[in-house]
Specification:
Layout lengths: L2 H30 L4 H17 L9 H25 L15 H12 L9 H4 L2 H31 L9 H26 L10 E4 L10 E4 L5 H9 L20 H25 L3 H27 L11 H4 L15 H14 L14 H12 L10 H21 L4 E2 L2 E2 L2 H27 L1 H4 L7 H15 L14 H30 L16 H37 L1
Antiparallel strand pairs: 1-2, 3-4
Length: about 575
């Protein structure tokens, strides 16, 4: 690792952690209903929404009603996004003159954006009109992020309440998240991005005259533009990741400067990290939030180090017949698929952050990473994206690991486990086990179908070991609602659009519903006083236990599959030297 790379990464972590407390405290005030300054500005708008929608803010929901409401609302979002894609050829704000999107691609995209996955099997600038990008994709960027945060808040309330039959009101949680957190942050961030040169216009594509035209090229180049900055702001802050352009944040119109790169990268983990402090405030013990954040940071820094070292010291392996000595070492490391304006450190930092969150945006080509460098983002996804995870979904996933950690500790000392004063019993363990095991099952079954069927193998651009890695990464990304890819896989086919779409659906809602079931169970329980046998869950010992549980579960689940892909690929490259 270079000194410059270390300093850039250190600066990023310092700024991120410095913002955790102020933003986390603000979000805690939003969800607790305490007065805060922004309520004086948008309070009237919030109340208008409730009146128009007929929402009674004083009426709370049990977990089943909360879950059903969440599912119906998200189902409506899927239908709206699907319809707008299919009808975009006859709708306004379509200066490109684009026609309807195919049914299978429309299904995949509708599910993708409703589930906060933002998997893109299409080229945004050549497939989606301005209206579709805004009214379908950008709107769902807000609502899918707000849904994940609402589920988290319901779970946090369950830990904080005593003998309660309700866990909150989904409509209130959704509205307050959007109005007071996501909209103001996105508006301010979009203005900053515009100042850096990110495009924001309703005008038609720009045209430029080619300086040196030839017979093989046109004399005029069409340059896609559009309402980009507004979508990029929420794509990053909401850990959505779906870019306006096909190449995402590697495109100079999405990410034009080193400052825009730093801020977009910071936005990926900003809300997920700050929610840890929100958790601590709402349960009445900020040490609990810091402990969870510490566990996330330990895993993040450790895997980031592995990826940076692998790329900084990696060789670019080229086809036989090319001068390996001249091509293998580029600027001290593997620069294939990376931009010189970002370099190795910022490219790998982005890849690690985007896959530790459920963001999936990219500023480099993950498929061009070295085998071990590419293993890190893949494994971060497979851990369940709990480091730091998607907005809301990352923390409620990590809290499920915390429940399992205290259960394991309870078995060691022969005592009924407790977490935040609530006894963890058989029901909570069953639901937690579902959350932990559902996505690995989706990933491994989906990848098996992909490598065993002709339709699955037809999309592989790199037959052999790396082709298996591409399929494994695709189903890992879809099932864990990430959205990034080893882009050598041609996934915009009826098979992959359908299979990955189903993986996204089950990966999002088969986890959210058990989490809400646990919330309903915990809310009904009394808080047990701390005793001599109670395991403190804010100490370095618990942080180590939590890290161990996360890594151990991930290792036991995915190491055999990883051994068939990136690990074997790495060993083969060593043997070929």
């Amino acid at each position: 690792m270079t000194t410059s790379g270390i300093l850039q990464i250190a600066l990023y972590l310092v700024v991120l952690l410095a913002l955790v407390k102020p933003l986390g405290a603000f979000m805690a005030a939003v969800y607790a209903g305490r007065p805060f300054w922004l309520e004086r500005v948008f309070g009237g708008f919030e109340r208008l929404i409730y009146r128009l929608a007929g929402v009674r803010t004083t009426e709370e929901m049990g977990w089943k009603t909360y879950a059903a409401t969440m599912l119906l609302f998200n189902a409506a979002g899927v239908l709206v996004v699907y319809a707008l894609q299919r009808l975009q050829g006859v709708l306004p704000l379509n200066p490109q003159g684009l026609g309807a999107v195919s049914p299978d691609s429309s299904f995949n995209t509708a599910v993708s954006f409703a589930t906060n996955t933002n998997w893109q099997g299409y080229g945004g600038e050549s497939t989606m009109s301005y209206l579709t990008q805004m009214a379908a994709l950008t709107v769902q960027n807000f609502l899918s992020a707000a849904t994940g945060m609402a589920v988290l808040v319901a779970l946090i309330r369950a830990f904080a309440r005593r003998s309660a039959a309700t866990i909150g009101n989904f409509w209130v949680d959704l509205t307050r998240t959007t109005v007071y957190i996501l909209l103001p942050l996105s508006f301010a961030f979009a203005l900053v991005l515009v100042s850096q040169g990110v495009v924001q216009t309703f005008g038609p594509p720009a045209k430029a005259t080619v300086v040196q035209p030839s017979k093989a090229t046109l004399t005029e180049q069409v340059i896609p533009v559009g309402p980009v900055a507004s979508q990029i702001a929420i794509k990053q802050l909401g850990t959505n990741g779906g870019g306006f352009f096909n190449v995402n944040s590697a495109h100079p119109f999405e990410n034009p400067t080193p400052l825009s790169d730093f801020l977009e990268l910071l936005a990926i983990l900003l809300i997920p990290a700050a929610l840890c402090y929100t958790f601590g405030v709402m349960v009445g013990d900020t040490r609990q939030g810091w402990a969870v954040l510490a566990a996330m940071t330990v895993i993040f820094v450790g895997l980031l180090t592995v990826a940076v070292v692998a790329e900084q010291n990696g060789h670019v392996f080229v086809e036989q017949g090319v001068d390996h000595a001249a091509s293998a070492l580029q600027a001290g490391g593997n620069m294939e698929g990376k931009e010189t304006r970002f370099g190795i450190a910022n490219s790998v930092l982005w890849a690690t952050a985007t896959t530790s969150a459920s963001n999936g945006s990219v500023n480099s080509m993950h498929d061009s990473f070295t085998p071990l460098g590419g293993l890190v983002p893949m494994w971060l996804i497979q851990l369940g994206e709990v480091v730091y995870g998607g907005v809301g979904s990352g923390l409620y996933g990590m809290l499920m690991f915390a429940v399992i950690a205290v259960f394991v500790a309870g078995l060691m000392v022969g005592r009924t486990p407790e977490y935040l004063g609530k006894k963890i019993e058989a029901y909570e363990m069953k639901m937690s086990s579902l959350v932990i095991l559902i996505t690995p099952a989706l990933v491994l079954i989906g990848a098996s179908v992909g490598v065993l069927t002709e339709a699955g193998k037809a999309g592989i651009a790199n037959p052999g070991i790396h082709g298996f890695s591409e399929i494994l990464y695709a189903f890992s990304s879809a099932s864990n609602n990430n959205g990034s890819a080893f882009a050598g896989l041609s996934a915009n086919t009826p098979f992959y659009n359908t299979a990955l779409g189903l993986a996204m659906l089950f990966g999002r809602y088969w986890l959210a519903v058990p989490v809400l079931a646990i919330a309903g169970s915990l809310a009904r329980k009394k808080i047990v006083p701390t005793g001599p046998g109670t395991l403190p869950t804010h100490t370095p010992l618990f942080v180590g236990l939590l890290v161990g549980v996360v890594i151990l579960v991930g290792a036991l689940t995915f190491v055999p599959a990883l051994a068939l892909g990136p690990i074997v690929e790495h060993l083969n490259l060593i043997a070929a030297k």
